[in-house]
Write a structure and sequence with these properties.
single chain, alpha/beta, eight-stranded parallel sheet, two-stranded antiparallel sheet, 11 helices, 10 strands, globular, binds NADPH dihydro-nicotinamide-adenine-dinucleotide phosphate
């Protein structure tokens, strides 16, 4: 992999996607246009949003206002669980595309499995297959799928997901998920790639350890005269993953994109691999949460 540029990944249906995307979870709608505009100015050409983030409309506006051609920006969004089911998910596409102001999405994924209603998850995925066949989306995928979910999905459907977006940072690396994805030809995409969930303000308790303050990562960062966030992003890219860091802070938006031009050694990669605690920060995808279904996604 050349180190002087951000890699482009080829998905299992030959669609290409910039490995580094820009995430907007927890970005308030009123800050989203400016944040996404900054990201596009800095050079990001891949944006990850979701129906549940409530900011698809603003992501679409930022892309239009950027003056870039539609085809220059890879747009990824997610169907929320309250919209699972065949007809419901077809309609979820209309809602997302309507808010984004786009006829076609680059990547549409199921936000998470609905473990106690897996039949609705399968129906939702069948709708994604229809959208793919109809040319409404260029690629389809899943998020927060454990290997068992992936196996059940593959048994019941025919298109292998292009992407599985999962929690993945130095403190929670999910090797079994990464192996299952790789075996099936599914690209693993890291959410909280710099460990945001280990330090989001206002979440969790004082026992959390922040990946940004990890001494091993800090020491590698010092060696390369880079920041801990840049080292973590480089680790993802060198291991072939997609990563979608989020920031609303212009200097950090730029910092997180400035990850070409240096290379971690095999020993450095291995020492980051060794930081895995096996403890997730986010919700366990095996647990069905009634409150998830209560969130209603508004019409476009
Ligand atoms: P990240 O690992 O991207 O971390 C984001 C946090 O880190 C924010 O608090 C941000 O603050 C801060 N930050 C960003 N850059 C830097 C930096 N260079 N130095 C110090 N602090 C920094 O976590 P996220 O959980 O947001 O994950 C990224 C994206 O993944 C989301 O935006 C979303 O698109 C996706 N996601 C998907 C999920 C899913 O279930 N599929 C779940 C969670 C996330 P600030 O903004 O104030 O600068």
């Amino acid at each position: 992999m050349p180190t002087d540029q951000i890699p482009t990944l080829t998905l299992n249906n030959e669609v290409t996607m910039p490995a580094l995307g820009y995430g907007v979870f927890q970005t308030p709608p009123e800050e989203t246009v400016a944040a996404v505009r900054t990201a596009l100015e800095v050079g990001y050409r891949h944006v990850d949003t979701a129906a549940a983030y409530g900011n698809e409309r603003e992501v679409g506006r930022a892309i239009r206002e950027s003056g870039l051609d539609r085809d220059e920006v890879f747009v990824e969004t997610k169907v929320w669980v309250s919209d699972f089911g065949y007809d419901q998910t077809l309609h979820a596409f209309d809602k997302a595309a309507g808010k984004l102001g786009l006829d076609r999405l680059d990547l549409l994924i199921l936000h998470q499995p609905a473990p106690a209603r897996f039949d609705t998850t399968i129906d939702a995925y069948r709708a994604l297959e229809t959208l793919l066949a109809d040319g409404k989306v260029r690629a389809i995928g899943v998020s927060n799928f454990m290997p068992g979910h992936l196996a059940r999905l593959l048994d019941a459907t025919s298109v292998v997901p292009a992407v599985n977006q999962v929690e993945l940072h130095p403190y929670f690396q999910q090797p079994a998920v990464q192996a299952a994805d790789a075996e099936r030809g599914v690209l693993t995409q890291a959410w909280s790639p710099i460990g945001g969930i280990t330090f989001y303000p206002g979440w969790g308790d004082d026992t959390r350890r922040s990946t940004l303050e990890d001494p091993t990562i800090a020491s590698i960062a010092a060696t390369h005269a880079r920041t801990p966030a840049q080292v973590m992003l480089r680790w993802h890219l060198q291991q072939g993953r997609s990563a979608i860091p989020k920031s609303v802070t212009p200097s950090r938006i730029a910092e997180n994109f400035d990850v070409a031009g240096f290379e971690l050694t095999a020993d450095e990669l291995a020492s980051i691999d060794a930081l895995d605690t096996g403890v997730r920060g986010g919700p366990d995808p095996e647990v069905d949460r009634a409150r998830f279904y209560e969130l209603e996604i508004p019409e476009a």
